[in-house]
Specification:
Elements (H helix, E strand, L loop, with lengths): L1 H9 L6 H18 L6 H15 L4 H13 L9 H4 L7 H7 L2 H10 L5 H8 L21 H16 L10 H10 L7 H13 L10
The protein binds fe (ii) ion.
């Protein structure tokens, strides 16, 4: 299925850039349908990432790029067995290694869409950690693309404040405390600071996001 999607997206026979883009978003939606716990996750990650980019005074093109990258960051999960994605208990080493393939698969899918090559690298590195302990390449600090560092905070935050198969949702306040606890190890402190400032300013109220 993955090879078919990549071939379809990169095919010159696909009538327009828009139709390839629509197909990519449809694939992202399909992944969320496979797991009810992640419904709406990509839309929220895109929205949070754009908010952080704006809060950091990054230019409009970067705000747009991270929003789009958020929408498609996990599209590669289409190539990961459902049994790994939906498992409620502890994952085995081999299940973990299956899951760890998804950023590279996402990269391959996104890079196949001609109008979206500029966001492929942001997607590729969304599970890198600031201290170098992430994947797929173990990049450290500012070697990780800024868009990926933003996506990582947005992605982790949303995972914390929503119910998952393996854990109940955390409060916004507790999730912000977690982001701060791991600022400098898992997360870029500047990104955490921007998102925290935004949420504190709004009385910890989350923005409305259209699924
Ligand atoms: Fe991911």
């Amino acid at each position: 299925m993955l090879e078919q999607i990549i071939a379809e997206l990169s095919s010159q026979k696909s009538p327009t850039r828009l139709s390839r883009y629509a197909m990519l978003l449809a694939t992202a939606a399909l992944i969320e349908m496979r797991d009810p716990f992640t419904a709406g996750h990509s839309s929220r990650v895109g929205r949070y990432a754009a908010i952080i980019a704006r809060e950091m005074d990054l230019i409009a093109d970067i705000q747009k790029a991270v929003r789009l990258a958020g929408l498609v960051h996990d599209v590669g999960k289409i190539g990961v067995p459902m049994t790994c994605l939906r498992k409620a208990g502890k994952l085995t080493e081999s299940e973990m290694s299956e899951i760890r393939k998804h950023p590279v698969l996402s990269y391959e899918i996104v890079a196949a869409v001609p109008g979206l090559r500029h966001i492929a690298n942001i997607v590729l590195h969304h599970h890198e950690r600031f201290d170098g302990d992430g994947y797929p390449h173990g990049l450290v600090g500012e070697d990780i693309p800024l868009g990926s560092r933003i996506l990582c905070v947005a992605d982790s935050f949303d995972a914390m404040v929503t119910d998952r198969a393996y854990k109940p949702a955390m409060s916004v306040e507790d999730a912000l405390a977690e982001l701060e606890r791991y600022a400098g190890t898992q997360f870029d402190p500047a990104v955490v600071q921007a998102f925290t400032a935004y949420l504190l300013c709004r009385g910890l109220q989350l923005p409305q996001v259209q699924a």
